[in-house]
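INTERNAL AUDIT FORM
Audit reference: QA-55
Scope: verify that the stored structure record matches its stored sequence.
Auditor: D.O.
Record contents follow.
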Amino acid sequence: MTRKPTLILRFYRSTMFFFCAAVSIALAWVAKRHGAQIVPALLLGKILIYPLYLYVWIVPRYSNEFHYYLNLGIRRRILLGVNCAVDFLLCYLLLKCSVALLYAAH
């Protein structure tokens, strides 16, 4: 039952975490600096950066790894889709926390 989510999160941690965390931290810094009204634009920016990152960096470099996960029963679309969802959730929570800290400071 927990085998597939564990494998999917392992792929996220090994391939996408550092880039996505760096982008999310940069967006949180911008949100803290410019205020809460810019958060939707920041999320839109992340949505625009993501396909470029996936199809220029992840798909060409990790095509062999996709075959490994396919043999374990996880398709590439599911693997990338769940990773994107997890990353957007983490980015949203980070932006929400940074805006909450911004309002608490005022």
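Auditor finding: record pair retrieved intact. The radius of gyration is 16 Å.
Action required: none
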